[in-house]
User: Which sequence fits this backbone?
């Protein structure tokens, strides 16, 4: 790789990391049905990084985004559970993109939709499980889901069951947030990829959801 390509790559990675920090720290709004849940779309930066460069770079941007938010806002929630949650979600996007890239190698629209839908489902599943066992207990001041009682979330959900409350809170929340994230990545990503390839004079053909060497086309 030429010095020009290396410099441009690291410059773009720095921009993506900074964008992730800004979106995560300052561009957010509460989920209408549970105001303590925050909707922000910084994870679309993780998807773009994966599509441009690959898994390793997406993990690096995940670390930059999470640590940058921790530096600017300080720990969110007990033990920084807000940043822990964001890190788990971003890593799930990284690994979800990598896994789907191994299975979905077609560039037809139907396969693209299948790939992105699979990623949203993966993230929703992982985050719901993580909230059940670890994240929500920490947020509510407990150290284990075994310490949670049936009425721990009843005042928030009106459901007198910890398991059902978790499902009712996090499944629709993560489905909606995940759909927003992949929608922004799929639309904005096309323009960014075109600019990147034009800047580097990259004439290679890349396929979406195929593990990239120097980027993956949307």
Assistant:
């Amino acid at each position: 790789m030429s010095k020009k390509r290396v410099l441009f790559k690291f410059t773009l990675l720095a921009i993506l990391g900074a964008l992730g920090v800004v979106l995560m720290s300052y561009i957010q709004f509460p989920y209408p049905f549970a105001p303590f849940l925050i909707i922000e779309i910084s994870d679309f930066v993780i998807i773009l990084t994966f599509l441009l460069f690959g898994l390793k770079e997406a993990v690096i941007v995940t670390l930059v985004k999470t640590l940058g938010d921790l530096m600017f806002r300080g720990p969110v929630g007990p033990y920084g559970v807000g940043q822990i949650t964001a890190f788990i979600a971003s890593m799930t996007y990284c690994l979800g993109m990598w896994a789907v890239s191994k299975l979905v190698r077609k560039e037809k629209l139907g396969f693209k939709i299948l790939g992105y839908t699979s990623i949203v489902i993966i993230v929703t599943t992982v985050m719901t499980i993580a909230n059940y066992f670890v994240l929500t207990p920490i947020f509510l001041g407990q150290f284990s889901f075994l310490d949670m009682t049936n009425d721990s979330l009843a005042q928030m959900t009106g459901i007198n069951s910890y398991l059902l409350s978790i499902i009712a809170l996090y499944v629709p929340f993560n489905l909606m947030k995940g759909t927003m994230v992949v929608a922004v990545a799929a639309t904005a990503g096309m323009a960014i990829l075109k600019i990147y390839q034009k800047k580097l004079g990259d004439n290679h053909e890349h396929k979406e959801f195929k593990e990239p060497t120097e980027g993956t086309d949307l």
Summary: The mean pLDDT is 83.
